Amino acid sequence: MxxxxxxxxxxxxxSFGAWKMGDDSALLHIVKSANVACxxxxxxxxxxxxxxxxxxAQGVSIGAHPSYPDLQGFGRRVMQMSAKDLESTLIYQIGAxxxxxxxxxxxVTHVKPHGALHNVACADPAVASTVxxxxxxxxxxxxxxxxxxxxxxxxxxxxxxxxxxxxxADRTYLDDGQLTPRSREGxxxxxxxxxxxxVLRMLKAQAIVTTSGLHLPCRIDSICxxxxxxxxxxxxxxxxLALEAAGYALVPLCDLSGD
Length: 259
Description:
The chain is of the alpha/beta class. It has 8 helices and 10 strands.
């Protein structure tokens, strides 16, 4: 039985004003790291502050979850932005969460792009470099949470920015290691037990396992559960129980070694 340490993370703080998204309080009792929306696809200052407070109370590490400036599209629409504009947009969002965390006596220890920005940065080396450049200007010790076999992970490696590698519990993969587009059938896994099987299959293989059965070997530091689905809490709980039963110790992302 393995005694490896692993992280379980979720995208949280995605409510906005009177609009509530997900059950952050419940998820923060299960996961070990929170990717907090920074206001450009979801979230607002009050939601960000409350999410930070809840995360700190549970010993959950705090990450920024910046996006394209796309509130209406929940950050899932691709936007054409110059490198200069995208870099400043990222610094603005991450910096806002850093300020809120500092005011609460905490700190932001990682960054994970959201939605369309995440997908584009995983495939486009130029966008990936812009994301990493923004991080390096803010804090060269900040962890980038990125999928293995992605341009985003490679950009961080090349620049010497700390990177940890994640797989998605509730998303399927194409043979190039990219996520199956949400527009395609089967892109999102809704059943909790199927998510558990998907995660354990990848951990056993130490590889991304694609829908065609192809194995893409990689290091797996963290498992992501999206926090905006109705099944999110049940899925996160089932995955945590399965990981612990397999002998894994769940820890915050910032407590994982990059070696």
